[in-house]
Amino acid sequence: MVGKIVIITLIIAIAVAFLCVKVIFRRNGSFSSQHIHDSEAMRERGIHCVMDQDREMRTRSRLAVSEKRQKNESF
Questions:
Q1: DSSP code of 26?
Q2: What is the mean pLDDT of residues 55-75?
Q3: Single pTM value for the model
């Protein structure tokens, strides 16, 4: 049982070390952003993150509602 825990801990430590190689050994190293809005390829394809899409749809629906109200008030 203790042997398995030691092996699992060692595997996790090696995985974390491999993930941090860029950060540790490069001057001013950092992890690159994984957000969709920071990806140039996604922006070129017109793909946005869920938060941006939600904000856009809420803005559109408010405009649609206000336009319907204006049309109804004019009659």
A1: S
A2: 66
A3: 0.39
